[in-house]
């Protein structure tokens, strides 16, 4: 059954837990994307500024997120996906990489298990423009493969995500920006696992930045698509704004009707999850609730289009 969700970043951990989930529920969302990357940001990881959040014993982390679970249960909300911390590999950061791969990400998976989250998004590392695509593929496969026994034990799956990267002032394709490359990762890993432990998280804003056509991408990967990051940008920066924000005509911005058609053709039945946290920061506090409601209305409209309902 198709549901509509929103990410927690922009609301949590900034707001008290009860207040944040009140806002999510009152806006009409029934699902969330739990952003663990809000507790250890990618910007800090790239800079080498690793905080102490994941140093806490797993029992303490599970107790903390148990408060999330209780607040969600009280409001009829579930977590359809998690965004884990990233990147798990930065060249020449050996000790940091060990910490990310052996502490932060495994603890993320344990939190996902405790919260009944089926899919955890773990970005593939970006190495192609320094060491080549083959080295990048090898390093990503090596780490994802190493997690297979742990994933089986804790009943959690991993989604790779289509990424972009920057070369000077240019935005260029990163890992899985090409749908065939994403298929290569997923199929090789699932064959090794002997079951469907790996899937795709499709980020619509990243498609825009590398000028990939959503309909073609979605229909190419097909049932491998498990979770979504829905948002839009100006084709220059990864702005994570709500759909229909950019452009003056129907020809500008993402063609959401084509996205709906593609999702219908592959029989997508997951969560239409909006990754639009800057809206919670860009709008004044007095209208943030209205912004959340508007995003949810967009999700319900997309759901109707997928199901071909009026």
Describe this protein's structure.
- The chain is of the alpha/beta class and 310 residues long.
- It has 13 helices and 10 strands.
- The strands form 2 sheets. It has an 8-stranded parallel beta sheet.
- α1 (17-27) links the parallel β1 (3-7) and β2 (31-35).
- The protein is globular, with a radius of gyration of 18 Å.
How does the helix and strand content classify structurally?
Answer: alpha/beta
Largest sheet: 8 strands, parallel
Mean pLDDT: 96
Shape: globular
The total strand number stands at: 10
Radius of gyration: 18 Å
Low-confidence blocks of residues: none
Relative helix content: 40-55%
The succession of helices and strands, N to C, reads EHEHHEHEHHHEEEHEHHEHEHH
The fraction of residues in strands falls at 15-25%
What is the distance, rounded to the nearest whole angstrom, between the alpha carbons of the first and last residues? 17 Å
| Tally of helical segments | 13
Strand order of the largest sheet: 9-8-5-4-3-2-1-10
């Amino acid at each position: 059954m198709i549901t509509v969700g929103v990410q927690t970043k922009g609301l949590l951990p900034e707001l008290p837990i009860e207040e944040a989930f009140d806002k999510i529920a009152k806006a009409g969302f029934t699902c969330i994307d739990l952003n663990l990357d809000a507790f250890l940001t990618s910007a800090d990881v790239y800079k080498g500024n690793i905080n102490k959040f994941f140093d806490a014993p797993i029992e303490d982390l599970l107790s903390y997120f148990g408060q999330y679970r209780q607040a969600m249960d009280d409001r009829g909300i579930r977590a359809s996906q998690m965004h884990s911390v990233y990147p798990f590999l930065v060249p020449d950061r050996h000790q940091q990489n060990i910490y990310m791969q052996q502490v932060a990400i495994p603890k993320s998976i344990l939190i996902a298990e405790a919260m009944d989250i089926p899919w955890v998004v773990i970005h593939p590392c970006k190495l192609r423009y320094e060491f080549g695509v083959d080295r990048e593929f090898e390093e990503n496969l090596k780490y994802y493969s190493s997690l297979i026994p742990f994933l089986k034990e804790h009943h959690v799956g991993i989604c790779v995500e289509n990424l972009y990267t920057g070369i000077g002032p240019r935005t260029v394709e990163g890992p899985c920006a090409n749908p065939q490359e994403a298929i290569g990762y997923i199929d090789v890993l699932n064959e090794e696992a002997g079951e469907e432990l790996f899937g795709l998280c499709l980020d619509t804003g990243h498609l825009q930045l590398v000028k990939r056509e959503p309909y073609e991408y979605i229909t190419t990967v097909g049932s491998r698509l498990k979770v979504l990051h829905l948002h839009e940008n100006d084709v220059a920066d990864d702005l994570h704004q709500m759909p229909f924000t950019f452009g003056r005509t129907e020809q500008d911005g993402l063609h959401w009707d084509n996205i709906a058609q593609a999702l219908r053709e592959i029989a997508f039945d997951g969560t239409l999850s909006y990754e639009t946290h800057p809206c919670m920061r860009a709008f004044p506090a007095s209208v943030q609730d209205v912004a959340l409601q508007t995003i949810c209305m967009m999700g319900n409209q997309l759901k109707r289009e997928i199901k071909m309902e009026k």
